[in-house]
Amino acid sequence: MQNMETRYTHSPLDIRHYSTEELRREFLVEKVFVPGEISLTYTHNDRMIFGGVTPTEEPLEIKLSSELGVDYFLERRELGVINIGGPGFIEIDGEKEPMKKQDGYYIGKETKHVVFSSEDIANPAKFYISSVPAHKKYPNVKISIDQVKPMETGEGVTLNERKIYQYIHPNVCESCQLQMGYTILEPGSAWNTMPCHTHERRMEAYVYFDYATPDTRVFHMMGKPDETKHLVVDEGQAVISPSWSIHSGIGTSNYSFIWAMCGENITYTDMDMVPMDELK
């Protein structure tokens, strides 16, 4: 089974008077990994499609054509994949490869078939995917977390000690505009970014997972720096972060998340830092 929900874009003025329910309806995706299903969200923010593929008894293949005005899903798109569940497999145009937890893949445009499956239906793979428009075909590349040298940043004293693994990034593989990575917070840390930042030139989407305890929650911060708002995010839920919004969050314990970005450039450090005295 496959389903895709469409979310539209918003001005910062649109959300000024949103209730909690309205804010969650527009920016939070509550169901990403549904056993036996493909659950996607198509955001009009830079035309990104993201979501979860959770195969159980049968392999799953994303099939989007008429929705995108093309003959097949990746005719004019590129795709990033990271498995955050049990061991599984990915078959790309007939070539099948194993995908353990934390394995990723960059798949270039014009790839016709991408099929996902699990090794054990009792412990299914959870493939998080992100796809954006592409103008050129780049080579498909499998990416293991063991091959990525993490950026170690933050400090325990400021509760933001973390490792950032850049999967789809110019240091690892070529892409048109997609960037994708995996951030792991150390025990005792809770902030994923503070001081926070914006990047008007790129939107972002996040999925939060690997919570330290069942009662862990992440408070995802968003909005303009002088009009901040927040979403309370349960494990396995995702958030759309527009380019004009701050990018930050804090958990009640440590956690991990996958970030995916697209927009005007692929320079990871292209951020506009927000001074603490400007936050409101």
TrEMBL record:
It is an enzyme of class 5 (isomerase). GO terms for biological process: D-galacturonate catabolic process; D-glucuronate catabolic process; pectin catabolic process. It catalyses: 5-dehydro-4-deoxy-D-glucuronate = 3-deoxy-D-glycero-2,5-hexodiulosonate. Binds 1 zinc ion per subunit. Its cofactor is Zn(2+). Pathway: Glycan metabolism; pectin degradation; 2-dehydro-3-deoxy-D-gluconate from pectin: step 4/5. The keyword Zinc applies. Keywords: Isomerase, Metal-binding, Zinc. Zn(2+) binds at H197, H199, E204, H247. CDD domains: cupin_KduI_C (cd20491), cupin_KduI_N (cd20294). Its EC number is 5.3.1.17. InterPro entries: KduI, KduI/IolB_isomerase, KduI_N, RmlC-like_jellyroll, RmlC_Cupin_sf. Pfam families: KduI. GO terms for molecular function: 4-deoxy-L-threo-5-hexosulose-uronate ketol-isomerase activity; zinc ion binding. Belongs to the KduI family. Catalyzes the isomerization of 5-dehydro-4-deoxy-D-glucuronate to 3-deoxy-D-glycero-2,5-hexodiulosonate. This is 4-deoxy-L-threo-5-hexosulose-uronate ketol-isomerase. It comes from Enterococcus asini ATCC 700915. The lineage of its organism: Bacteria, Bacillati, Bacillota, Bacilli, Lactobacillales. The gene is kduI.
